[in-house]
Design goal:
Low-confidence stretches: 1-27, 229-237, 346-353
Number of helices: 25
Organism: Phaeobacter piscinae
Membrane topology: Multi-pass membrane protein
Radius of gyration: 32 Å
Subcellular location: Cell membrane
Keywords: ATP-binding, Cell membrane, Ion transport, Magnesium, Membrane, Metal-binding, Nucleotide-binding, Phosphoprotein, Translocase, Transmembrane, Transmembrane helix, Transport
Number of strands: 28
Structural class: alpha+beta
Mean pLDDT: 78
InterPro entries: ATPase_P-typ_cyto_dom_N, ATPase_P-typ_P_site, ATPase_P-typ_TM_dom_sf, ATPase_P-typ_transduc_dom_A_sf, ATPase_P-type_domA, HAD-like_sf, HAD_sf, Heavy-metal-associated_CS
Strand content: 15-25%
């Protein structure tokens, strides 16, 4: 990330001394990036951009809804940490991102590269087709030879460029001594080109340049179709690395805070973390008391009290009071970085999944090569005519070319993805549907996934009017989630706040004020002298009498109960794993009918449980939304995250749930099973086609051109069968 440089020795205004002694121009602009996981519509974009552009020093701010990210160009003295409170006041969660860590994922060339090669193959094949029509219409001798040579001049450079993905993949497979689907493809193309060139050099009647180009075009169409079924692939580990705080305030020997790069911190450094700031390292609190938002790591929105001696982890947010911490783990040893490593390891394990197409290729490719070789050998021994033997071998390779198999999977996944997109689900990964069809166990996170992640005051309406007004007055001015819930309940009830004086928020404990000459408090049970209950609660001390408890719960997301019920009815084993307290998790599991649940789970615990279920032979679907879920999402057989999830969680998942409703999850499993059946049907269609067509080619009854037309017919049949999913 570009940052302002503070010059010590300036040769002139706006210049700084470089390390080598030369004078360089100081940066006049900073580029900042913020993650905005809670934006979801055009109104959010407009609000965020207006709010950021109104900040002094901000030159421009643009929001990307797809990536849920804001890119800001500003004066050098503007910092991302200054912009986060602005967005939080507008009601949006915001996290600073390190642009340097994201630089490798900004542009995706694969889609544009495939599209360009597809366009070249299409343009060349249309031109060669026109020349072929002239030959079919009766052109002969010198005219026919001229058209053939022109076709060759168009075809060779076009295929050398357009067919590079197939050539590259085939070579990589052959180099390590194995076969894949691209090896017979390349052999068919090369043999068709060589046969056509030989026929042209001998003034033969037939050349098959158009067949080679048509074959290349159809295969590239399948590759591009496959690419379009998923979002741009980005590494979740890189996203996690980008969430690490790039700078920190280190206390020098005189006690003065100095801003330094986090990379420069060492163990035992004393670091000042101001309210609203994120922990740059793991450490222990030396001074101060506050409340910590651990939602980035645990997924739970309720703050945790921190005082001298408390342990803190990188990524946690300091909410209410300044803290001085002593670093105990920095850099690669911090909990946030270890979580990134955990995600990277889990991703590499899941990438070993073999798709149906790859499994078919292991059986298909050797058979095609053997059959073509036997056809060439048999006809050569029968006729001793190299031209006839090569023509028939080329026809066999083209007619058996796995174009239909290559289209079988992407055609189905595209049709299924379109159907699920209408239901609010975006399929990101190429093999996600195949893996989703195999799922027998579903693991849900709690807060932000099954629930909305916003506490709701359950018994505010049971308080007396005077207590409601007093609680509202004490809750005002606090950003604590429970205080916000009280204010929301009071506003909905139309309550006016009582008049209080000397209002003060005590970090880590609650709020207190003077009311009618008495000190009143709203906060923790121990602070107001109350006995804590099992449920999450805040306690109102009115200055006289026993403190009044205000209990809170988290409301279910729309469709959560329906999704769980449908999955259980489908015979799937459903788990609930949460970092929340045991009482809250047990209560939610009972409400939803989930028998298997785990509470107080750390990110490692979630990942370990998913891995354990996988080792027991289960195919696990993980549904989660937080940074603490990313390792489990990556370790699962297949994973889903809501669009409101943190960037890293969305990237680690295979499927993104675009709306608030969870009910499409069960339908997605059903659609995935239907899609897998269609893929298997397409394989059977392609096999039946080969059973009929191959004997004709081996018998010499099909030229390479007829073989190419037959291959195209099988590809169209496979595509039409896939459309039945819609």
């Amino acid at each position: 990330m570009s940052t302002a440089v503070r010059p010590q020795l300036a040769a002139c205004p706006g210049c700084v001394a470089a390390p080598n002694g030369t004078v360089e121009q100081a940066p006049t602009e900073a580029r900042l990036a913020l993650s905005l996981p809670s934006i979801h519509c055009q109104a959010c974009i407009s609000t965020v951009e207006r709010g950021l552009n109104a900040v002094p020093g901000v030159r421009s701010a643009r929001v990307n809804l797809t990536l849920k990210r804001a890119l800001i160009e500003a004066d050098p003295e503007v910092r991302a940490l200054d912009l986060v409170p602005v967005l939080e006041r507008l009601g949006f969660e915001a996290h600073e991102l390190d642009l340097a860590a994201l630089s490798a994922t900004q542009t995706d060339q694969a889609g544009r590269d495939l599209l360009m090669r597809l366009a070249v193959a299409f343009f060349a094949s249309m031109n060669v087709m026109l020349l072929s029509i002239s030959v079919w219409s009766g052109a002969s001798d010198a005219t026919r030879d001229m058209f053939h040579w022109i076709s060759a001049a168009i075809t060779f450079p076009a295929i050398l460029f357009a067919g590079q993905p197939f050539f590259r993949n085939a070579w990589q497979a052959l180099r390590v001594g194995r076969l894949n689907m691209d090896v017979p493809i390349v052999l068919a193309i090369v043999l068709a080109l060589l046969t056509s060139l030989w026929e042209t050099s001998l003034s033969g009647e037939h050349a098959y340049f158009d067949a080679a180009l048509t074959l290349t075009f159809f295969l590239l169409a399948g590759r591009y179709l496959d690419h379009r079924t998923r979002a741009v692939a980005r590494s979740a580990a890189e996203e996690l690395a980008a969430l690490e705080v790039p700078r920190a305030l280190r206390l020098e020997s005189a006690g003065q805070p100095v801003e330094v790069a986090v990379a420069d911190l060492v163990i035992d450094d004393h670091i000042l973390v101001r309210p609203g700031g994120r922990m740059p390292v793991d450490g222990v609190v030396l001074e101060g008391q506050s409340e910590l938002d651990r939602s980035l790591l645990t997924g739970e929105t309720l703050p945790v009290f921190a005082e001298v001696g408390s342990s803190v982890s990188a990524g946690e947010v300091n909410l209410t009071g300044p803290l001085v911490i002593r670093a105990t783990a920095v850099g690669n040893e911090s909990s946030l970085h270890q979580l990134a490593d955990l995600v990277a390891i889990a991703e590499s394990g899941r990438s070993r999944y073999t798709s149906l197409a790859d499994r078919a290729a292991k059986l298909y490719a050797p058979g095609v090569h053997i059959l073509s070789g036997l056809a060439f050998l048999g006809w050569y021994l029968f006729t001793f005519d190299m031209r006839v033997a090569l023509n028939i071998a080329a026809a066999v390779l083209i007619i058996t070319c796995p174009c239909a198999l290559g289209l079988a999977v992407p055609a189905v996944t595209t049709a299924a993805s379109g159907r699920l997109f209408k239901k609010g689900m975006l399929i990101k990964h190429a093999t996600a549907l195949e893996r989703l069809a195999e799922v027998d166990t579903v693991v849900f996170d709690k807060t932000g996934t099954l629930t909305n992640g916003q506490p709701r005051c359950d018994d505010f309406d049971q308080l007396s009017l005077s207590d409601q007004r007093l609680a509202y007055a004490l809750a005002q001015g606090s950003d604590h989630p429970l205080s916000v819930a009280i204010c929301r309940a009071a506003a909905q009830a139309g309550i006016k706040a009582a008049f209080v004086t000397a209002h003060e928020e005590v970090p880590g404990y609650g709020s207190e004020a003077l009311y009618a000459g008495q000190r009143v408090r709203l906060g923790r049970a121990a602070w107001v002298g109350a006995e804590p209950g099992e449920k999450t609660a805040a306690y109102l001390d009115r200055g006289a009498g026993a403190p009044q408890a205000l209990t809170f719960s988290d409301s279910l997301r729309p469709g959560a109960a329906d999704a769980v019920r449908a999955l259980l009815n489908a015979g799937k084993d459903v788990w609930l794993i949460s970092g929340d307290a045991e009482g809250a998790v047990c209560d939610l599991a009972t409400r939803l009918g989930i028998k298997s649940w785990i509470a107080a789970a750390l990110p490692q615990d979630k990942c370990d449980q998913v891995s354990l279920l996988s080792q027991q032979g289960h195919r696990v679907l993980m549904v989660g939304d937080g940074l603490n879920d990313t390792a489990a999402l990556a370790a699962a057989h297949v994973s889903i995250s809501p669009a409101s999830a943190l960037d890293a969680a969305r990237v680690a998942s295979d499927i993104v749930l675009l709306g608030q409703d969870l009910s499409p999850i069960a339908e997605a499993c059903t659609v995935a099973q239907k899609a897998t059946r269609r893929i298997r049907e397409n394989f059977r269609i392609a096999t039946l086609y080969n059973v009929i067509a191959v004997p004709l080619a081996v018998a010499g009854l099909a030229t390479p051109l007829v073989a190419a037309l037959a291959m195209s017919t099988s590809s169209i049949t496979v595509s039409l069968n896939a459309l039945r999913l819609r």
